[in-house]
Design brief:
The chain is α+β, with helices and mostly antiparallel strands and about 300 residues long. The chain has 2 domains: about 45 residues, no CATH class; about 220 residues, no CATH class. It is about 35% helix and about 35% strand. The chain is built from 5 helices and 9 strands. The strands form 2 sheets. The chain has a 6-stranded mixed β-sheet. A 3-stranded antiparallel β-sheet has the order 1-2-3, with no helix packed on it. A hairpin with a 6-residue loop joins strand 8 and strand 9. The chain is globular, with a radius of gyration of 37 Å. The N and C termini lie far apart (about 145 Å).
Length: about 300
């Protein structure tokens, strides 16, 4: 092999030329075969060092990583601000959130420390304090008419239901404003029933406050609900009113009358009516059976007195 050939083959960046060696470079590696007098008896593969070009590539990757980190940081910082501003604009209810994390690629969302407060037109400031909310949705279902959630967890520290007068409540006002913002052309129409599926739902509500200002003297009651309920395959709000849930709500059933808005309020009213009718029927049936037993007892007593 001529010295010129060795010099030309040894011009690959990062590989030192050696006399009597043939080098063939491709795809980031150099094949080098060395011998004496053309007898190539020793072969090896050496890595190809990129030199200046490699340094530029690494710098570009570092630049992309920094840009991605800055974008993620901006997303985490400004997303809660944007979300609460939208809620305030759509409903008139102010809101603050401690943290909000959304992953559009996996369909997950997690909210911590959400506090919703009433407008100044209500005599009480507090409305809703959510300790934690998380949901895991099937991504492609979010683009359909029926979103599907694999899991959903709701942890509520306190709910404050306020009756401002004989008609208006804060929960009803919140729902009405949200419906109007979603469909301004038909604000008076009945909201369309939601079509969804939650495969597993966990709901926890610690405390309920009912503040009634419809009379001259306000009446405020605080209830320690300690409600902790799990559901499967939820497709409607009526399923939330399971017997175990109603048992927890039994002490506040009369106080909740007219305070729950929308489909949840309608379902709660219907379930309470059905439970009341069933209870009345059970009492009548029990009284009838007790009356029959007493009548039988006196009849037997009369028969025993006859000679």
């Amino acid at each position: 092999m001529s010295p010129e050939h060795v010099k030309r083959m040894g011009s690959i960046p990062g590989v030192e030329a050696q006399p009597g060696c043939a080098r063939f470079g491709d795809a980031g590696f150099v094949f080098r075969s060395c011998g004496v007098g053309g007898d190539f008896g020793r072969s090896e593969i050496a890595p190809l060092h990129w030199g200046v070009r490699g340094g530029a590539g690494v710098k570009f990757l570092v630049f992309l990583a920094v840009v991605f980190a800055m974008f993620a940081l901006a997303w985490m910082l400004f997303l809660p601000v944007v979300a609460t501003a939208q809620l305030r604009q759509r409903t008139g209810f102010d809101a603050q959130v401690q943290s909000l994390a959304v992953n559009p690629f996996s369909g997950t969302v997690e909210i911590r420390g959400l506090v919703v407060t009433n407008p100044p037109t209500f005599p009480v400031h507090d409305f809703l304090e959510v300790r934690r909310f998380s949901a895991n949705a099937e991504l492609f279902s979010l683009f359909s008419d029926r979103p599907i959630f694999a899991t959903m967890e709701v942890e509520v520290a306190r709910v404050t239901l306020v009756r401002r007068d004989a008609v208006q409540t804060n929960a009803a006002s919140f729902e009405q404003n949200l419906a109007i913002a979603g469909d301004p052309a038909a604000p008076s129409s009945k909201p369309k029933a939601l079509n969804f599926l939650i495969r597993r739902l966990n709901v926890r509500i610690d405390e309920l406050v009912i503040s009634d200002h419809s009379a001259k003297v306000p009446v405020v009651h605080t209830y320690k609900l300690a409600l902790n309920q799990s559901y499967t395959d939820v497709t409607g709000v009526r399923q939330l009113l399971a017997p175990s849930t109603l048992q927890s709500l039994l002490p506040v059933a009369s106080a909740l009358k007219g305070l729950l808005p929308g489909a949840l309020g309608d379902a709660f009213t219907d379930v309470v009516k059905e439970a009341t009718k069933s209870g009345a029927a059970l009492i009548r049936d029990t009284s009838h059976k007790a009356g029959e037993k007493i009548k039988g007892y006196f009849d037997a007593l009369e028969e025993s007195k006859k000679p």
